Amino acid sequence: GQAFGLDSLRRGIARLYADLGCDVDPEEVLITDGCMEALNLALRAVAKPGDVIAVESPTFFGFLQIIESLGMKALEIATHPRDGLSVPALADAIEQQNGAIRAVLLSVNINNPFGATMPDEQKRALLKLCAEHRLPIIEDEAYADLHFGSQRPAPLRAYGDTDAQVLLCSSF
Fold first, then answer.
1. 105 with 135: CB under 8 angstroms?
2. Residues 6+ apart with CB under 8 A from 139
3. pTM higher than 0.70, yes or no?
4. 3 state DSSP class of 10
5. Are 129 and 85 within 8 A, CB to CB?
6. Cβ neighbours of residue 88 closer than 8 Å, sequence gap 6 or more
7. What whole-number distance in Å separates Cα of residue 18 and Cα of residue 168?
8. Residue 71 contacts residue 47 (beta carbons within 8 Å)
9. Would the CA dihedral through 7, 8, 9, 10 be positive or negative?
10. Taking CA 39 as the corner, what is the angle to CA 153 and CA 87, rounded to the nearest 5 degrees?
11. Are 109 and 144 in contact (CB under 8 A)?
């Protein structure tokens, strides 16, 4: 209802993501006061103080600020300047951390600071890996509309979110 934002706006956002291939029910949409608030709420929903959050390296400084303010710990994962987060490096970190990683926070499309966009096969591999380990993904989509190609890259939800839990955060 209205507690989660104006219903017509929530339906409009669901339609926008449907056009990108995402199955988003308007009831899943929560209107926030910007993407940073959405990221903060998403982290609080899946982790608690002391938990480890995997992030790209380098990552957006705002991610580190939110993680620190919530008493969580950031674990940097190797990131390619063109293709984004290294899925094999994340797999190694998951194994080394022995279950300590509680979530992955990243931007797969036009990440900050590199501007990297993860290739489709890598997106699928990331979803599969996180689903296998029941690891929620918090996807920051705030810059995806700044793409340079003819078609906007799809968010992770477009690749099938049946087993992986993806919390999609964005802004206008």
1. no
2. 106, 107, 108, 155, 156, 157, 166, 167, 168, 169
3. yes
4. helix
5. no
6. none
7. 13
8. no
9. positive
10. 50
11. yes
Helices (H), 3-69: 7-18, 35-46, 61-69
Length of the chain: 172
Tokens at residue 60, please? 């957006």
Which element (helix H / strand E) includes 120? Answer: helix 120-132
155 in Cβ contact with 109 (< 8 Å): yes
Residue 74 token pair? 């950031």
- Token pair 């988003």 is at which residue? 24
Cβ-in-10-Å burial (0-12, 13-18, 19+) of 31 comes to: middle
Cis-peptide, bond into residue 58, ω within 30° of zero:
yes
pLDDT tens digits, 58-84? 999 999 999 999 999 999 999 999 999
pLDDT tens digits for range 138-160: 999 987 777 777 788 889 988 87
Exposure string over 56-73, b if 16+ CB within 10 A, otherwise e? beebbeebbebbeebebb
Mean per-residue pLDDT of the chain: 91
Name the token pair of 105.
Answer: 């926070």
